Amino acid sequence: GAVVSQHPSRVICKSGTSVKIECRSLDFQATTMFWYRQFPKQSLMLMATSNEGSKATYEQGVEKDKFLINHASLTLSTLTVTSAHPEDSSFYICSAPLTSGGGTQYFGPGTRLLVL
Amino acid sequence: AQSVAQPEDQVNVAEGNPLTVKCTYSVSGNPYLFWYVQYPNRGLQFLLKYITGDNLVKGSYGFEAEFNKSQTSFHLKKPSALVSDSALYFCAVRAMGGQNFVFGPGTRLSVLP
After folding, report:
1. How near does any CA of chain A get to the CA of B88, in Å?
2. CB-CB contact of B11 with B19 (8 Å)
3. Among A46, A31, A35, A49, which Cα is nearest to A98's?
4. What share of chain A is helix, strand, coil (3-state, %, to 5)?
5. Using one digit for the tens of pLDDT, what is the confidence trace for A31-77?
6. Residues whose CB is less than 8 angstroms from the CB of residue A105 and which lie 6 or more positions away in sequence, other chains included
7. Most B CBs within 10 Å: which of A104, A111, A113, A114, as the mutation test of the B interface?
8. What does the alpha-carbon distance between residue B44 and residue A30 come to, in Å, rounded to a whole number?
C-alpha cells in the first residue's frame, strides 16, 4: 500500500515558539494532502487541505495565520504551528489520497505536539 | 451535508467470537465508504473500502464490511476476533466527486482473552 511519513513523531516546545511538521508521500505523488487534528479519545478534525502549487484551503474556525501550510512539491507538505500555546498541544495527522481507487486516503503516523 | 454515525463508543467481545462494529452514513448521491483502524499514538491504517460492486467487501486482517444501501449502513465484521484487534475503529464517507472524508466519532473495540 501507499506510504505516508511524518516528522517529527513527537515534539515538545516552549510557548511562543514555532514548530514545523513535515508530511511526505513516499511512493506516490500527491497534489493534495490533508491535515487533521485529533484530541484525546475523539475523532479526527479536518484542519485544512494542502494543495500543491496553490494556497491551502482552511476549514471554518482554523486560523490560517497560526497554522501555516506549504505544499512545496508533489510529495511534501508542511504544517507550521506559529507562536504555539499550550492549547495547541494535540495529535496532528496528515494524509494523502490516491487519485485512483476511490481516493483512499493514506495516513501518516502522526505527530504528538506538547507546548509547555 | 455528509455525516457518519458510529452508535457504539465501545464494543467488547471475547476472543474467538465474531465482532461487529456499526456504522451508518448520510451523503448525497452514491457514497464511497471506508474503514480505518488506529492503534495508540499511531496514524490511521486503511482496512477496506466500498466504491461499487459487491456489497460484501473483504479487507485486511480478516475484516469485512457489508454495504446496505437501504439501511445506509456499512458495518465492519470479523468472524473470529483476536486480542490484537483491540483498537479504535473509524468509519468514513466520501461523496462521489468530492475529496474530503467525513469521519465517524470512532468505536473502541476491546477483545478480551
Report:
1. 9
2. yes
3. A31
4. 5, 55, 40
5. 999 999 998 878 889 999 999 988 999 999 999 999 999 998 999 99
6. A34, A95, A96, A97, B34, B46, B92, B101
7. A104
8. 18
